[in-house]
Amino acid sequence: MNQTTSLRRTAVSGLLWSLVQNWGGKIFGLVVFVLLARLLQPEEFGIASSAFLILTILHLVAEFGLGDALVQRPSLTRADVTIPFFAAMTLSVSLASGMALFSDEIAAQMGVAGLGPYLAVSAAIGPLMTLSALQEALYRRELKFRPLAIRTLAGVLIGGGVGVVMALAGFGTWALIAQFGAQMLTSVVWLWLRPVWTPTRETNAKSAVEIGRFGANVLSTYLLDFVTMKSVDFIILIVYGPVALGLYTVASRLYQLLLQMLQTSISSVGLSMLSKVSGDLPRMRRLYERSTSISALFGMPIFIALAALAPEVNHIMFGAKWAGADQLMVPLLLIGGVHCIQFLNVAYLTSLGKPNTLVRLGLLKAILILPPLYFIRMDSVASTVNLYAFSLLLLSPLSFGATLRALGLGWGALLLPVFLPALASGLAFGAVLAVRHFALFPVENVFLSALLLGALFSLVYAAAIAILAFRSAREVVIYAIGAFRR
After folding, report:
1. pLDDT on residue 294
2. What does the H/E/C string look like for 281-311?
3. DSSP 201
């Protein structure tokens, strides 16, 4: 068996396992989310999302990037983990206590009436998140992905059950707090019943300093990304209130879910495969052209189709009370069509040993997103989300340009793999908008409307691909079928 065949088999096998491990939890999580959205009101979702924003910031600080730091170390003893573990737990408990004690003051600063009690109670989830994250990192270090996948599924099912029962009983926002708390408690119990590491009195101060330094670098990157990507949540909450944040939370769920499923399933395998060919630049170029082509041909039209069908998708999934969320879905799903290809750039730049390029792109993203959001006051939630999506789009040519330069490729390398499928998706999107605008399908039934418009999108997209990029699409399909058959 030659190296190419072996590598392909390893990649496909890893991808399939990654799909099984990650998609199950995400799909069950979406089902729970849809049920809760149908049972609860937008304001209740917005208040819970406000509490989770603060909780997430505190968790990032408390965890201090130690999970990634522990995973990357070439060698690790029990003593190496002791000081980082107790330091993280001490910080987590301290921050959670502060969040509980000053919950009313935090709520007042955020301008959300009645948020205080939810902040105080949800603070108790913080130490659970830290306990789970550190043990999970050590599981990942030992490549024990199967128990992690089962843990995720169990947490989603138990937490979802608690949340749905409480929502049916009329507990409102408390149902969302309890759902997340039960999910994290399940994770902690599951991981710590069979721990990879247990506390010991042995310590290693030198190792702790090294782990802390690495973790600090990871933390700074995570915090910058969190502030950049979550600023829109804070702006919507402060300017428009918790109801608007609830609408945005629901509208952004599908975009986030699809991207997470693609990233966790492909990037985790892709990085390890790329590391094996990182010294072979011509081979990496071919792999980049092939991977971007697959994402553009199969991933992008999913996002664009959902954007075209946003009114029907929103009504079918979440119900009439979430009217208006579809207007927020459209720009997010459209930018998702670009991001489903763009996220590959991170894997290739990492494999090529370009960490400084990634840092610069992260800073550029912050520069492109934060000033417009904070200094340009829009007149509605929809226009704010449009501004946010447009700011994200401005980073895309910079990301692709940096990756192409690192690979020694020109922009022409993306013509067949990306631009033509993007044009086909755009034509299909335009066809659906035209039919909707001129009411050519005067159908009252939302399910039938979704079916007809979805069929129209598929037909136009397939016809456009057949005309514009038949040969390259045929090669990609044959390659994908052949890879899975092997």
Report:
1. 83
2. HHHHHHHHHHHHHHHHHHHHHHHHHHHHCHH
3. S
